[in-house]
Specification:
single chain; 251 residues; alpha/beta; 6-stranded mixed β-sheet; 4-stranded antiparallel β-sheet; 9 helices; 36% helix; globular
Length: 251
């Protein structure tokens, strides 16, 4: 395994000429972009545009077909990289909450800490309590996922990722499975993280969040980046026809 040497001066994420095929279907075509440390990049676009595939390539949940991806200067696409060590630095939050239904909230938050980070039980519990406080659910540590609303489950999923003390967070449409009235609580947690300087790459349909919190906005369609720039500029004055057509439907 290639040892992990983090370069804090390097881009948090650096994607170079990324291509991804599923069989004969090309879903990503020559993607290039970077995420600066302590910034929030929001990725928008229609369903099937390659947004989630791009996100999942960053921690190699999907295997890129060609191209290179670096996280904090470490090449994710190096076949010899220690993926477990690298992934322990990258928090991931999915559309579906992926909590263990048979475990309490506390056990959901400590299991990876003790197994992957090799923390003691006491240390893992202390960190879990801090992250539960952060997402506003300190009183639910003994609850089971089935007894929580969707919004609460997603906030627990965020707390679980944060309990691993990651350097950056990936969010794959974290609010798309939620009832509309529950979306705000999850977005508030993400806004707080951004204000604390957490590096975040967020695939989202929440244009208000992208405008308010994003440092950079990437619009994808057909597996390519069509347009990117300051969220206020892109959303308010899109330059590309395809971006204009998409935003006219969603704004």
């Amino acid at each position: 395994m290639t040892e992990i040497h983090i370069d804090k001066d390097a881009p948090a994420i650096d994607v170079q000429e990324l291509h991804k095929y599923f069989g004969d279907n090309q879903v990503l075509t020559g993607i290039n972009f970077t995420v600066a440390p302590a910034s929030v990049v929001c990725v928008i676009g229609p369903s099937g545009s390659g947004k989630s595939t791009l996100l999942r390539c960053v921690n190699r949940l999907e295997e890129p077909t060609s191209g290179k991806i670096f996280v904090e200067g470490v090449e994710v696409t190096d076949p010899d990289v220690d993926l477990d060590a690298l992934r322990s630095r990258i928090g991931m939050v999915f559309q579906q909450f992926n909590l263990f239904p048979h475990l309490t909230v506390m056990d959901n938050l400590t299991i990876a800490q003790t197994k992957v980070k090799k923390r003691s039980k006491d240390e893992a519990v202390a960190i879990a309590r801090q992250t539960l406080e952060k997402v506003g659910l300190a009183d639910r540590e003994d609850a089971y996922p089935a007894h929580l609303s969707g919004g609460q489950q997603q906030r627990i999923a965020i707390a679980r990722a944060l309990s691993m003390t990651p350097d950056l967070m990936l969010f794959d449409e974290p609010t798309s499975a939620l009832d509309p009235e529950l979306v705000g609580d999850v977005l508030d947690v993400m806004k707080d993280l951004a204000s604390e300087g957490m590096t975040m790459m967020v695939v989202t349909h929440e244009m208000g969040f992208a405008r308010e919190v994003g440092d950079n906005l990437v619009f994808m369609d057909g597996g390519v980046i069509v347009e990117e720039g300051d969220p206020v500029e892109v959303l308010g004055n899109p330059q590309e026809e395809r971006t204009q057509a998409f935003l006219s439907k969603v704004l």
